[in-house]
Write a structure and sequence with these properties.
three-stranded mixed beta sheet
Amino acid sequence: QVFGCMRKEDLQVTILSTCPVADYKTQESTLTLPSPFLKALKTKEFKEEVCCPLLEQPNIVRDLPAAVLSYCQVWQIPAVLYQCYTDVIKLDTVTIEAFKPLLSSKILKSLVKDVSESTKILKKLLTTNETHNNIYI
């Protein structure tokens, strides 16, 4: 429905997603992998350089990120998915920091004012969010 309201000309889509490192398929033990880490998957029309290695087979992407990427592939919209594999359930600053290399990408560079302040801002946002998620017994 979102894409139905947008012009497809000059559109480029960037999808950010996280999933458990246990879902990552590899020959080596996932215990030795540095977590979190990024992998990318892109449509044929996406011509820019990706900021991390491409996702290898037989790994798959699921749910909404897969649906958006598939839509973009079918409608020939340049799109890239950055999948962060992490060993934590709740989003934290370490996991968000894994996306930091994307801030230098051509598409996101114009959205960033000061990369040096990003860590401090993220910590503040997550700390504020944590206080609202506490359950008091």
